[in-house]
Each structure stands twice: as structure tokens, then as C-alpha cells.
Design brief:
48% of the residues lie in helices and 17% in strands. The chain is built from six helices and six strands. β5 and β6 form a beta hairpin. The relative contact order is 0.13.
């Protein structure tokens, strides 16, 4: 859904079937133009993200840039990248990278990073997860009460998580936090998958 279009007349008007058909054709064309414009904007943000990554020099900077790129392209509030060491089978809290977490909450987030490991392991197994409303009973299947409270303090109302993989190799997880609750539609998920693929390749190259 992209929006609505209204036609206003200054006096009463009876709409013929041919007028309704013409309006429907016009609305369909307008919707297509809006969708194409959004797609072009997304592609341009992804292009800028790819260019920005070429300036990163070390792994820490690359991971931070991946988080920033993901947040910018998806227009999220917060993005978090948490690398996974597939050799030893564990996440590495010291390599945690983020973009958008409020500075006054950074210490609290860093202390809570290990508590996200069970969810992150589920994410690696399933490929992706979504929480459409952090402040709801639905969130309880993924997040505990303290985690929900921390996300809400950071201005996050919904969460989308993607596993970072290249082939069969698990490289980590990417979390995106959004300011509004909502359903993640196929177009959003497809864009997130493209971001995940780009991030996974860049993360592998950074090692």
C-alpha cells in the first residue's frame, strides 16, 4: 500500500462507469510511478552505501559502516551487527557494531549484548525473525521484559533480524530497529535481504 488519492468537486457530481474506469487507470499509473520512485531511492541509497564501504580501512570500521549503511538504506532507527565466529561456534561481543543507539544508552546496550545470544542463535538457524510490536505479548517469544524496555527507551517499536551468511558459513546477525510498529511486507523483506547479502560479503572480506 502506497497511499490514497482523492478527487474533489465543488458541486454534486454523478460518476459514470467510464469516468470510474479512467480514474482507476490514472490511480494505477500513479501507484506504479510512486513504487518505481521508491525503488530508485532505495537503489541510490544502496549505491551510496557501497561507495562508503570502500573508504573503510579495518574490520571495526567496516562493521560500523555496515550498520550505518543498513540503517540508512532501510530508514531504520537503529542497526546492530554482531559477528559470529563459526570456527569456535560463538558470538563475539567485543566486535559488536551499531549505528543509531543513543549515547546515553550505549553502556546499557553493551552490558546487555550477551543476553541477546539465545535470540541470535535462533536467528542464525531460521535466517530471519521479526517483531512487529516490541510493546506487545507477541514480543515475549523473542525478547524478555528488560530487553523490550531497553529497546523502547532507544525509540525502537519493531525489530527485523537477518542472519549474515555467505554460502553455508554463518558470519553473524544484523538487527534493524524501527521507530514505528508495523507489518514487514514482502518489499521490505526483499530490500532487507539485499542489504544482508551485501553486508555478509563485506563482513567476510573484512576478516
Amino acid at each position: 500500500r502506497l497511499g490514497v488519492m482523492w478527487f474533489h468537486y465543488s458541486e454534486p457530481h454523478r460518476f459514470s462507469s467510464s469516468e470510474i474506469d479512467a480514474y482507476q487507470f490514472y490511480v494505477n499509473q500513479a501507484a506504479l510511478a510512486c513504487a518505481n520512485a521508491r525503488e530508485l531511492q532505495t537503489l541510490e541509497r544502496m549505491r551510496k552505501a557501497a561507495v562508503a564501504l570502500t573508504t573503510a580501512e579495518d574490520e571495526s570500521e567496516i562493521l560500523h559502516q555496515i550498520a550505518q549503511n543498513a540503517r540508512d538504506v532501510m530508514q531504520a532507527k537503529v542497526a546492530i551487527v554482531w559477528p559470529y565466529d563459526s570456527t569456535y561456534g560463538h558470538f563475539t561481543p567485543e566486535r559488536f557494531a551499531e549505528y543509531g543507539i543513543p549515547e546515553d544508552l550505549m553502556g546499557e546496550f553493551l552490558r546487555d549484548v550477551p543476553r541477546f545470544e539465545p535470540l541470535s542463535r535462533v536467528l542464525l538457524k531460521n535466517g530471519w525473525i521479526s517483531v512487529e510490536e516490541v510493546n506487545s505479548q507477541e514480543a515475549a517469544c523473542c525478547l524478555d521484559e528488560d530487553q523490550c524496555s531497553l529497546l523502547l527507551k532507544a525509540g525502537v517499536r519493531s525489530v527485523l533480524g537477518e542472519a549474515l551468511r555467505v554460502g553455508d558459513e554463518n558470519l553473524g546477525v544484523l538487527y534493524l530497529g524501527f521507530e514505528t510498529p508495523g507489518v514487514f511486507r514482502e518489499r521490505t523483506l526483499e530490500t532487507a535481504r539485499r542489504i544482508e547479502q551485501q553486508a555478509a560479503l563485506e563482513g567476510k572480506d573484512a576478516r
